[in-house]
Amino acid sequence: MFSGIVERIGTIQEITPIGEEGNARRIVIGVDDEEYLQGAQIGESIAVSGCCLTAIELGPRHFVVQAVEETMRRTTLGQKSAGSHVNLERALRADARLGGHIVQGHVDGVASVVLVREEGEGWWVSFEPPSDLMKYIVEKGSICVDGISLTVANVAYSRFSVAIIPHTRAVTTAAEWQTGVQANIETDILAKHVERLLQWMRPDEPSA
Length: 208
Description:
Blueprint: E1 8-18, E2 24-30, E3 45-48, E4 51-58, E5 62-67, H1 69-74, E6 85-90, E7 109-119, E8 122-128, E9 142-145, E10 148-155, E11 160-164, H2 166-171, E12 182-186, H3 189-201
Antiparallel strand pairs: 1-2, 1-6, 2-5, 3-4, 3-6, 4-5, 7-8, 7-12, 8-11, 9-10, 9-12, 10-11
């Protein structure tokens, strides 16, 4: 489990196709300082731009993960290359403050940036996600975009918007968002559980 509070920006050092058809990837991710990975263990979960991945190798300033076909289909990892930046967050400790919201690292889909504009001291950014995710997105609710816990500032028919403060742009990859860029989206897990529960309570009704 994660909180959506990005801890570091990592840099992809190497991406290698693996598997019989080459659809999976072995990804080497570098970090700037040795302290970040101190105490990390092989098998540990690390959120990489919102994707919960397992560390299979560890070095002082890098770690290695594998992304299987489902992850490549569902996320933006297939668009990354050596030199790409990614947001990093290690798994939440039980005694840590939950500064963001409950994030699983299970990406629901990919959204496209459709608008970026300066607004006062910050930036207004609008995303267009897959249409079936809009029902889970509510104004003033929480959403995870590329591993960043954000508050939904506005919801329209086919898009939602967030307001980005300078600190967020400085410590995450939000500074790289521009029209046409795609980002990983994870909606509120509580909304999805409630929807599934209601489906079981009313089994004769078709799902939305």
